[in-house]
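User: I'm writing a tutorial on reading structure tokens. Could you give me a worked example: one chain, its sequence, then its tokens, then a sentence or two explaining what the tokens reveal?
Assistant: Sure. Here is the example chain.
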Amino acid sequence: MGSLIYDKNEQYELTLLREGLGYVSGYSATDQQYSIEAQAKSSKLGLWSVYKEEAEDDAATVSDQEFEEVVVSEIVEAGHFYTQAKGEKGLEWVAKQLAGLELDSKSPLSELPGKGELVCATWQGDWYRAKIMGRTKADDGTPLARIHFIDYGNSDLATLEQLRSMDAALSSMEPLAKECKLACLKCPDAEHDFGEDAAGCFRQLVWGKDLVAKVEYREGKTQFVTLFESSGSAGLSVNSAMLREGLARVNTR
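And here are its predicted structure tokens:
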């Protein structure tokens, strides 16, 4: 990571910001970079021509007292995860509905559904609700669907034989897993040298535990939260534990 200079003294990153073709990530950012970004934003140049203030609006509406008892149902990587409400009764209802459909005896889909469609899909022999995220192919050319299990948060690849149509009753219920990230932090991703260490530490802190999530702000449908152990002190959060271990840094924005 560094700077690129052209025409003797022009900084390439400032040119991108000036044209609205880049934005400040917050890591070691300078006042000059923020100022140029703000000018491009106010002039609606480049990406700012289609930018909407939804994230800031959502953040402003979050109550300081928005707490929820949760369990972590899936970990994508350190600081990025999915939660279910503790004791979520909807999971039992969905399971009963799926069992009543006798999907094993039904015919597979004749073609892969389009992106965004809801289907029933198998995971380790059981049926769950899933959303089509895209299409790909196996090495032998077999068409595959990229699926996301909306009640748990995990993702997988599925063949046509592993997919069934979903009825209206199941489609009408909102996903029971919520996408979350640790608020105000940046954690190493899976490609980072410390990504595996960070993910392992995060898993030890949250997996299989009763937690309390305090929603600090939202970006789209993603909740940015502070996590506490429900049986522990309110002053000791998962967020601060990741910082103490040197496996996260503060998002300065």
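What the tokens reveal: The longest strand covers residues 126-137. The helical segments are 12-18, 31-42, 54-61, 90-100, 168-172, 195-206, 238-244.
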